[in-house]
Task: inverse folding
């Protein structure tokens, strides 16, 4: 694959006031905390020839930087900047698509916080920017613009309106005092004509307005802490059709509503239909976003996934960052898409990703910007302080430079950092630098010597290349002997990170958008990976560690668990697929002379506690147990599925229990019976599964009888429940046939639907004799004569199905008598009566 490299396009010297732009960017990248510059305030025109910087603090303003197509023009006359005509904070810059544009014409609008809009045009032949006219976006003079954007021929914005007197009287919350508005616009030769204003959404929270194609996305403002409860969802709006869609970062579109007859929406009514569903969601946070231009929206989520919300509302996962990649650099990320390539910047690393298949094309380390020595010294102070405090800390939590800067526990490095870059009183810094001059020179000399002796980066590159070659060679070999396996184990032990990356390259592991792994290597490679577990042979001249080398599959599972634990179940699934397609045998391992399934080999990578172990020594026990459940379920083996089911029941995750049961009961009747019997035993012991009984009864196997069900229930009912219901010390029957709602005792009412279903199935006529019974050639015999009198239904107990009901109740009474010999019960017409047992 061709390696991609970054090429410098411009150093801004070809822009007007390019040195000022360079200085602004230099201060933005510096570590000076007093600097208020922010890259989110930089705007670039679609043609890349105009850059505008919005100044917010301490003084509002606007900086313009322009690139001329004819550089000699700017030399012959004075350049005209886009000037400020009012001391009002600027919300944003809106660039317009001028259809009449030729050569050097650009058109934009400066939107102010008070709702005013100024329109400017760039005329290269006349030396720069010229004002056209001003207009009011908002109808209300008290309105305040929060966010603005342009979508096709619409200007859309979110504005804040002061609360009315009626809302103050009812003490209405101020979080919903915003509205979404729009105006049409038309670009003319020397003006921009605006249409009438329309409010599209009332009483909504504070939203950022993001345009993408014909869609506008309304994202919650993360800076507004009062609306954090509304961050579970966001809106997608079509200004042309006035269609709103409610979306989330985990499900995509949840609800769509077309324009009502009143042509206006109320936010609360819009989300009423999905409020209950939204309350059950726990979507990840949005760390970054970028419009695609074709109607979609790219999202960088807190889970590490880069997802694409398509214009049809489907949420598609594209790329997964390594675990904890966003932990230390979540504040320094950006993403943009260029055709089918996504450029994602995390800290000082640039990722190039193919959005069509989610493949990482390149990962490039960005160069550090040049900063002054004082900033370098401040950064060195925090890094050394971080190492010092970490070595002496009793906590296992990793201390980072960012936490040290934000926290107030350690004041020494913060105080020293405030002294060093000061430019006012020079005696303190000069004295400090003078005392440190000798030490600093010594450190610089030492670094030069180290750089001359060992070029660390080159060594790392050579090491990376050698490990990749060796791991690839060993995995591609037809068969590994014991010495080669020991050698492979030593590589993974000494160079774990390089070995993990080499494994991904050798096996061509790729994670697609659906969350599964793929590999395009030939079956011979997987034959080596899934090679059987050889019986351990002890060699006298080797140390104990050498005699306990891990097989290849176990070695790779440990590496996956170490660097990408979420991939472990997917890796097992991929291995099972390769094992089946290549016909490599069932387990390719031995356990007491028998085949060892792959899932048991994968489970060996998890540091799970043994029986009686102290769980405090396993801080990641719950996460590891989640992986254990996933591995067991991925295997699909009956014993593994039942083991996973028992783990979930032990953790009382009943919803997941029912999901697993519904999924695997379809595999085979035997597994269906085992799962149902296990769950029925659980139902007899407590009432936690009551909300899921209808789902469980639907899983009842065809061959399970009423007698078998009752035997299972009675064997698993806690003894306290039987002694409470049939106390031998009392001759008075229970006052009610129903248990206390707060009791954990199983009642007959809960079992009634199941018993009725099974009983009806048992009494169903056999289909083999249905044709004979319904044949017209064998008429039924004449019914016997009966004596006149009352009908049998009023004088005798019901027969057929009722008789079987009586038999069941009699059997149950007999069973309960075994637990309570002090009473004698008889059955009369389907009822159980109790009399004292005469001695």
Result:
């Amino acid at each position: 694959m061709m390696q991609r490299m970054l090429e410098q396009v411009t150093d801004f010297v070809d822009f007007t006031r390019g040195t000022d732009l360079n200085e602004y960017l230099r201060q933005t990248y510096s570590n000076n905390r007093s600097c208020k510059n922010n890259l989110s305030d930089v705007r670039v025109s679609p043609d890349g020839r105009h850059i505008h910087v919005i100044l917010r603090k301490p003084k509002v303003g606007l900086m313009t930087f322009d690139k001329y197509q004819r550089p000699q023009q700017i030399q012959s006359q004075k350049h005209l900047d886009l000037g400020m005509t009012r001391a009002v904070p600027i919300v944003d810059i809106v660039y317009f698509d001028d259809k009449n544009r030729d050569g050097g014409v650009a058109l934009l609008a400066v939107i102010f916080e008070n709702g005013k809009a100024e329109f400017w045009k760039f005329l290269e032949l006349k030396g720069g920017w010229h004002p056209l006219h001003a207009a009011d976006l908002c109808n209300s003079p008290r309105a305040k613009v929060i966010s603005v954007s342009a979508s096709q021929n619409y200007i859309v914005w979110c504005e804040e309106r002061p609360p009315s007197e009626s809302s103050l009287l009812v003490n209405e919350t101020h979080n919903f005092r915003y509205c979404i508005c729009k105006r049409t616009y038309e670009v003319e030769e020397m003006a921009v004509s605006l249409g009438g204003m329309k409010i599209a959404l009332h009483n909504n929270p504070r939203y950022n307005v993001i345009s993408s194609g014909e869609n506008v996305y309304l994202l919650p403002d993360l800076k507004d802490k009062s609306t954090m409860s509304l961050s579970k969802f966001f809106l997608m709006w079509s200004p042309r059709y006035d269609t709103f869609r409610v979306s989330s970062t985990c499900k995509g579109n949840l609800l769509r509503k077309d324009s009502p007859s009143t042509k206006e929406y109320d936010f609360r009514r819009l989300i009423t239909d999905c409020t209950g569903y939204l309350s059950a969601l726990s979507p990840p946070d949005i760390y970054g976003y970028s419009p695609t231009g074709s109607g979609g929206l790219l999202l960088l989520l807190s889970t590490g996934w880069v997802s694409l919300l398509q214009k049809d509302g489907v949420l598609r996962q594209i790329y997964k960052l390594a675990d904890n990649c966003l932990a230390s650099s979540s504040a320094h990320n950006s993403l943009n898409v260029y055709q089918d390539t996504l450029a994602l910047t995390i800290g000082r690393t640039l990722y190039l990703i193919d959005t069509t298949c989610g493949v990482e094309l390149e990962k490039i380390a960005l160069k550090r910007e040049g900063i002054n020595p004082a900033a370098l010294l401040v950064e060195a102070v925090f890094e050394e302080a971080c190492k010092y405090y970490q070595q002496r800390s009793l906590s296992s939590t990793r201390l980072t430079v960012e936490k040290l800067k934000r926290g107030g526990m350690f004041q020494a490095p913060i105080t020293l950092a405030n002294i060093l870059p000061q430019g006012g009183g020079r005696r303190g810094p000069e004295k400090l630098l003078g005392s440190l001059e000798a030490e600093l020179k010594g450190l610089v000399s030492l670094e030069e010597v180290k750089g001359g002796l060992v070029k660390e980066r080159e060594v790392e590159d050579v090491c990376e290349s050698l490990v990749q070659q060796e791991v690839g060679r060993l995995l591609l070999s037809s068969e590994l002997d014991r010495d080669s396996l020991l050698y492979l184990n030593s590589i993974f032990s000494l160079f774990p990170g390089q070995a993990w990356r080499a494994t991904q390259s050798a096996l061509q592991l790729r994670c697609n958008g659906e969350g599964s792994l793929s590999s395009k290597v030939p079956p011979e490679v997987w034959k080596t990976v899934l090679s059987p577990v050889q019986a351990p042979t002890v060699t006298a001249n080797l140390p104990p560690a050498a005699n306990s080398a891990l097989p290849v599959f176990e070695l790779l599972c440990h590496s996956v668990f170490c660097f990408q634990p979420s991939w472990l179940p997917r890796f097992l699934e991929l291995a099972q697929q390769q094992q089946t397609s290549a016909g490599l045998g069932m387990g390719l391992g031995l356990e007491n002379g028998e085949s060892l399934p792959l899932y048991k080999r994968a489970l060996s990578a998890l540091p799970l506690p043994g029986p009686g172990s102290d769980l405090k020594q396993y801080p990641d026990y719950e996460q590891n147990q989640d992986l254990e459940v996933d591995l067991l379920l991925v295997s699909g083996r009956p014993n593994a599925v039942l083991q996973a089911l028992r783990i979930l029941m032990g953790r009382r995750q009943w919803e997941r229990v029912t999901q697993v049961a519904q999924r695997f009961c379809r595999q085979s009747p035997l597994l269906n019976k085992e799962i149902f019997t296990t769950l029925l035993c659980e139902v007899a012991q407590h009432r936690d599964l009551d909300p899921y009984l209808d789902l469980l009864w639907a899983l009842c196997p065809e061959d399970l009888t009423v007698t078998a069900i009752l035997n299972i229930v009675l064997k698993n009912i806690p003894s306290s429940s039987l002694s409470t219901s049939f106390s031998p010390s009392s001759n008075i029957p229970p006052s009610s046939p129903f248990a206390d709602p707060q009791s954990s005792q199983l009642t007959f009412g809960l079992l009634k639907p199941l018993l009725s279903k099974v009983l009806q199935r048992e009494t169903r006529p056999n289909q083999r004799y249905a044709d004979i019974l319904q044949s017209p050639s064998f008429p039924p015999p004449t019914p016997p004569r009966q004596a006149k009198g009352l009908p049998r239904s009023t004088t005798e107990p019901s027969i057929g199905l009722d008789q079987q009901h009586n038999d069941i109740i009699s059997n149950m009474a007999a069973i309960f008598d075994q637990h309570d010999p002090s009473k004698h019960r008889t059955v009369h017409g389907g009822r159980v009566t109790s009399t004292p047992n005469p001695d």
About this structure: The chain has a mean pLDDT of 77. Residues 178 and 634 are 48 Å apart (CA to CA). The first strand starts at residue 42 and ends at 44. The chain is about 35% helix and 20% strand.
